[in-house]
Amino acid sequence: xxxxIAYDTTEGQTRKxxxxxxxxxxxxxxxxxxxxxxxxPSGFSLDGFDAILVGASIHLGKHxxxxxxxxxxxxxxxxxxxxxx
Length: 85
What we know:
Elements: E1 2-8, H1 13-27, E2 31-36, E3 51-56, H2 65-80, E4 83-84
């Protein structure tokens, strides 16, 4: 199974949580990729993942504009596979 953990972070804590979750998934024998939505690798695509986890911080009761845009752009892919937020 190929799993994506896409995250957005302001102060770095969500990055730490995303990596911790990825390490646990990898120990379970699954392939996992961690991606900062603000700095995705060149040519990055959500295609080919069997499941997607999205993580983000909340500031003043809201998620970032970048996270909202990411989800909006990729809603079809997020709905096509098991996903969690």
